[in-house]
Q: What sequence folds into this?
């Protein structure tokens, strides 16, 4: 049975329409943890981050965290970003915030951070949803990566969201913002092409996080084979090199061929357009000889 999850956007919805008082942050009276100042904030004052890379939290995980907080308190405050004097957005600690909501608490310890870009944009009267989204996306991915690396799927979904919302116009632009190569971000983004059972497993168990292996898997058109190989990869029965031979499309000397190996079958498809009749006949005879050899051997 699939584990129940909490939809973060839904649970945090209560904070979206909240209005803050003019003096909600008073850093001079803040406490400290790990060298950083923190204060107590009313949970209703904290807006969700619309570009949060992690969208769901397992029910079991949330309850365990809530139980720990109830027994031992909150070890580390959440982090919020001060966008303006009346706007705070959650930056890191969505699971902790959800646990506090689950415990029906009204306040939560929070580190309040500021980014000069918000102040500068405000001075230029350029602080709008688009500019806020760009800065939040960059900071949110970086913040999450520094605490617990995002799965390829979490990052891919986050990239997909900012592209669909037109926060950025291309994968190349996202790559530049995140300080990654276009090739790396393209491979991350391509994981969304994986079979649904694979995506579900990565979401629920964090599954296989090897981006190169997932990239090779999504190249395989047969989704049943994809899932079969994914399970073997997850179990440690095969590696990325094994995956590469399962679906290889190559071009050599103007001859395009597709070679696939599944559990019980071998498929070879060759475009013989570039061959003359004699070459086609020779290839046919040689391939038939190979097949006959193994059929005779296993009679």
A:
């Amino acid at each position: 049975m699939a584990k129940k999850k909490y939809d973060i956007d839904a649970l945090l919805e209560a904070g979206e329409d909240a209005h803050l008082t003019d003096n909600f942050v008073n850093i001079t009276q803040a406490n400290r943890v790990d060298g950083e100042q923190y204060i107590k904030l009313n949970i209703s004052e904290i807006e969700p981050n619309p570009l949060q890379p992690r969208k769901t939290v397992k029910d079991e995980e949330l309850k365990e965290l809530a139980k720990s907080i109830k027994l031992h308190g909150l070890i580390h405050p959440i982090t919020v970003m001060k966008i303006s004097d009346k706007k705070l957005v959650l930056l890191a600690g969505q699971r902790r915030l959800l646990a506090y909501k689950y415990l029906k608490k009204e306040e939560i310890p929070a580190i309040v951070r500021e980014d000069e870009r918000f102040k500068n944009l405000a001075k230029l009267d350029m602080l709008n949803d688009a500019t806020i989204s760009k800065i939040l996306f960059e900071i949110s991915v970086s913040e999450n990566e520094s605490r617990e690396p995002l799965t390829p799927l979490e990052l891919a979904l986050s990239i997909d969201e900012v592209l669909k919302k037109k926060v950025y116009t291309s994968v190349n632009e996202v790559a530049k913002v995140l300080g990654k190569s276009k090739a790396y971000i393209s491979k991350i983004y391509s994981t969304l092409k994986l079979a649904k059972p694979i995506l579900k497993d990565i979401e629920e168990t964090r599954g296989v996080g090897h981006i190169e292996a997932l990239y090779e898997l999504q190249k395989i058109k047969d989704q049943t084979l994809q899932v079969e190989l994914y399970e073997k990869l997850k179990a440690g029965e095969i590696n990325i090199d094994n995956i590469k031979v399962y679906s290889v499309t190559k071009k050599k000397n103007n001859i395009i061929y597709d070679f696939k190996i599944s559990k019980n079958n071998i498929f070879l498809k060759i475009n013989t357009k570039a061959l003359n009749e004699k070459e086609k006949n020779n290839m046919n005879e040689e391939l038939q000889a190979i097949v006959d050899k193994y059929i005779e051997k296993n009679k």
